[in-house]
Each structure stands twice: as C-alpha cells, then as structure tokens.
Amino acid sequence: MPMWRITLTAPQYPSGITMYIWIDAITGDTPSTIQNINILNHYVGMQYIEPDSIPELTYFPYIVWGMMFFSLLAFFINKRWFFFAVFLIYFGTSALGLYDFWLWEYDYGHNLSPKAPIKIEGQDYQPPLFGSQYLLNFKADSYPTLGGVAFTFGVILHLVAAFFKRK
Length: 167
What we know:
The protein is of the alpha+beta class. The protein has one domain. It has 4 helices and 5 strands. It has helices at residues 33-44, 56-77, 80-110, 146-164, and strands spanning 4-10, 13-21, 26-28, 131-135, 138-144. The chain has a 5-stranded antiparallel sheet with strand order 3-2-1-5-4.
C-alpha cells in the first residue's frame, strides 16, 4: 500500500494528478503521471522526480523489515519494557521518515534551476508535508494513504501494548 499521496489540481487538471509514495517506489494514478509532473516541474525549474535516484526507496524496505522483526521479537519476549522500546523505535523511525520526506520536498521545491522558463522572485514550490497549499495556480494536497494510516496504527498499538501489558 502506498504510504502517502500528493495530488495537484488546477484549471488545466480539474481531476488532478496524483502521485503515490510507497516505501520503495513512486507511482501515479496513470502510467504517465510522473512524466507529467516532471514536465510541470521543468517549467518552474524543479528537479525531475527520478525514483531510481532516491536512495531512501532502496533502504526503507529494510528498515520496515527490521521494524517487523522487532515487533515479532516483542511478541516472543512478551515484556512491557520491550513493547515500550519497540514503540520508541517505531516512533523515532516515523519521525525521522517524516523529516526525511520534508527535506525531500524542501529540496525539490526550493533548489530551482536558474534556467527555468518561469521565474517568480521569492516563489518556492514545496508542497505541504500535511494539508493543502496553493503553488501558483495549482492546489497541492498532501496526505497519508491507507499504508501510512496502517503504519501509524501499528505504532499506536505498540504503545497500547506497553501500557496494558501485565507485569
């Protein structure tokens, strides 16, 4: 399941262009979504989105596997302190992942090419980490999807397990 989605809507794209961010890939609602977003990015000087060049998409799956391992280990160890430790690992990893995503958005939205066909002094094109924002005539919506919600639910379950685990 994808973890996050960013949708761009504008008068020329009334139904929107949606990009899905998975733990190991970036896709769109159509096969040409990434290409279309890259074309739009070109006009304002943003970098191309090239999933193969994003290292996080390579190593994040291993982090998720490690987190799953710690969850299973917590089940077998069955100690309150370990459930809480796994919660802290999940929470810290989640916070670092969101920070990394924000840095990725910041880089793409602020490090603009000086050769861009459209230049507006002081304008950046960073989509919001969470919520909606207008970027010129595009409305950018950025929200977690079912994968992100399920991951968050798993983090919360570890905290609940830590608190309700009997001694």
